[in-house]
Design a protein that fits this description.
There is one protein chain. With 294 residues, the protein is α/β, with parallel strands linked by helices. The protein has 12 helices and 9 strands. It has helices at 2-37, 74-84, 87-108, 123-126, 131-142, 155-159, 163-174, 206-210, 216-231, 244-252, 269-281, 286-289; strands at residues 40-49, 56-66, 70-72, 117-120, 149-154, 178-184, 201-204, 235-238, 257-258. It has an 8-stranded mixed β-barrel. Helix 10 links the parallel strand 8 and strand 9. The longest helix is centred in the N-terminal third of the chain and has 36 residues, at 2-37. The termini are far apart. Bound molecules: ligand C2E and magnesium ion (3 copies).
Length: 294
């Protein structure tokens, strides 16, 4: 009967919700343990200047090596880390690890002393009262210049913020730290507020790049974003470049930087070091070497 069906549905729904809550709780517990046991590592994805790839930077991307479940992608645990506040500790670890990597590369590749790494930061991190002091202390501990680290903030998180947040950005900016607006063009856009934020670089979301070639309108959209960014004094990174033709189009549009599988997937520390070494030892790329900084 309908009544029995209704009850059945209700039970199904509760058990589904229970299931969700359970796995969410388990993930949270797992995360706490993982932070204790240091189950995380950073991968580094090259960001190259267009069209000649004569400048290089990296974006640091966190990886969780779960002892039983294997590699868990950040999209699956960063939101939980944000909801639970664990992102504060985890985010600090990310910054430390990136700075440590810069100092290792500086020593190994002296001609490379100005190498920069982009680090993704969550709004919660920026809202800690002591955040800018913490960052300043870490920079001096590792003897890294403030322009060698760039913070990526997603467009959607920027939009959820008020005036206090803008003050924090400006304070960090006055220390010399630069900001990228990440995943630009996803979801609701911040066009009308974009000029309020002290942003240096705009990263066009992968979803736009993927649709290049499908129709002319897509190119016009990207052209408009690039013009807007340049008009506001920002340079542009195109995310998720996978094909030569996407690369060519973006170069023609005056996009300054590219990142994506066409150049390289995110690399672990050893492979990223190898990537730099290979650039430095390829004879025809000797010319590039002098300009290898982002
Ligand atoms: P994101 O910052 O936009 O990072 C770019 C994502 O696109 C990365 O996924 C990268 O592996 C992927 N990607 C790069 N090039 C290509 C391509 O050519 N094709 C395709 N299909 N994908 C490409 P990943 O590493 O899974 O990171 C996902 C998101 O997790 C990041 O998006 C970022 O928002 C977040 N995340 C990663 N690490 C951290 C972190 O340390 N802290 C915080 N708060 N968030 C992080
Ligand atoms: Mg990013
Ligand atoms: Mg991005
Ligand atoms: Mg993204």
């Amino acid at each position: 009967s309908a009544k029995a069906n209704g009850k059945g549905c209700y039970q199904l729904l509760t058990s589904e919700l229970q299931q969700k809550a359970m796995s969410r709780l388990q993930l949270e517990n797992d995360l706490r343990r993982a932070i204790q046991n240091q189950e995380f590592s950073l991968y580094y994805q090259p960001i190259l200047s267009l069209p000649n790839s004569n400048k290089l930077g990296f974006e640091a991307l966190i990886r969780w090596h779960h002892p039983k479940k294997g590699m868990i992608p950040p999209d699956q645990f960063i939101p939980v880390a944000e909801e639970t506040g664990l992102i504060i500790e985890l985010g600090l670890w990310v910054i430390k690890t990136a700075l440590n990597q810069i100092s290792i590369w500086q020593e190994k590749f002296p001609c490379f002393s100005e190498i920069a790494i982009n680090v993704n930061v969550s709004p919660q991190q920026l809202m800690i009262a002591s955040f800018s002091e913490q960052v300043q202390d870490l920079l001096s501990d590792f003897n890294i210049k403030s322009h060698q680290i760039k913070f990526e903030i997603t467009e959607s998180s920027l939009l959820r913020t008020g005036s206090h947040y803008i003050e924090v950005l400006k304070r960090l900016k006055s220390l010399g730290i630069q900001f990228c607006i990440d995943d630009f063009g996803m979801g609701y856009s911040s066009l009308s507020r974009l000029h309020e934020f002290p942003i240096d670089t705009l990263k066009i979301d992968r979803s736009f790049i993927r649709r290049i070639g499908s129709n002319q309108g897509e190119i016009e959209l990207i052209r408009t974003i690039i013009t807007l960014a340049h008009g506001l004094g920002m340079d542009v990174v195109a995310e998720g470049i996978e094909t030569k033709s996407q690369l060519n189009q973006l170069s023609l549009l005056g996009c300054e930087w590219g990142q994506g599988f066409l150049f390289s997937k995110p690399l672990n520390s050893v492979d990223a070091t190898q990537y730099i070494a290979a650039l430095l030892t390829t004879p025809r790329k000797q010319e590039r070497v002098k300009a290898l900084l982002m």
